[in-house]
């Protein structure tokens, strides 16, 4: 049985912050040392400590999940690929986003429908509420916050192409990153990117 959480509401894309933490990880710092640097030196230049803590909580999961091989790919990649890798790590912790990608967006692209509307998100969450008790317990406010974060993440990696979050496209993964995913047998993540191939 799948397990869904609403943790994505507190973990937006945070490219600059994640990138900074991955650079420190690559320099040999431990996750605890990175946390200390974030909180004590305010390397994100945030005004509030609470914001630092909240952001680092989401980033910490990414730091824990990235292995040495993927970190090397990340460090040696252009921004576009870096964002794809962050997206991959986000989906590893947020099944609600990965399933939306594969169940809704992949089907749209298969049928030549490149428009995504608010009602598509609402239908998806209604369906998940019927199937999974944990989703049914989420408030409407939580669901709408999730939808908002999902839209912004999909825009960040260019699957959603406009600021109104209505147009979608298939994107190509970086070749080296895709090879890594193939080796890791990440079929679920690769599904959307292979639609129509």
UniProtKB/TrEMBL annotation:
Pfam families: BrxA (PF08849)
InterPro entries xrefs: BrxA (IPR014948), BrxA_sf (IPR023137)
Gene3D superfamilies in the cross-refs: uncharacterized protein from magnetospirillum magneticum domain (1.10.3540.10)
Name this polypeptide is given: Putative inner membrane protein
Species assigned in the record: Geotoga petraea
């Amino acid at each position: 049985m799948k397990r869904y959480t609403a943790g994505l509401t507190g973990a937006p894309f945070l490219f600059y912050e994640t990138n900074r933490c991955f650079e420190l990880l690559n320099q040999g710092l431990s996750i605890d040392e990175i946390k200390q640097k974030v909180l004590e030196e305010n390397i994100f230049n945030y005004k509030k400590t609470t914001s630092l803590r909240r952001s680092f909580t989401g980033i910490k999961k990414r730091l824990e999940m990235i292995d040495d091989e993927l970190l090397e790919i990340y460090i040696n990649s252009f921004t576009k690929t870096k964002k794809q890798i962050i997206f991959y790590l986000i989906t590893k912790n947020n099944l609600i986003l990965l399933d939306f990608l594969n169940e809704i967006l992949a089907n749209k692209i298969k049928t030549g429908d490149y428009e995504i509307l608010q009602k598509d998100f609402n239908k998806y969450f209604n369906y998940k509420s019927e199937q999974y008790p944990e989703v049914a317990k989420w408030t409407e406010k939580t669901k709408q916050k999730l939808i908002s974060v999902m839209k912004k993440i999909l825009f960040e990696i260019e699957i959603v192409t406009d600021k109104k979050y209505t147009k979608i496209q298939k994107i190509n993964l970086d070749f080296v990153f895709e090879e890594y995913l193939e080796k890791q047998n990440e079929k679920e993540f690769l599904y959307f990117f292979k639609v129509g191939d």
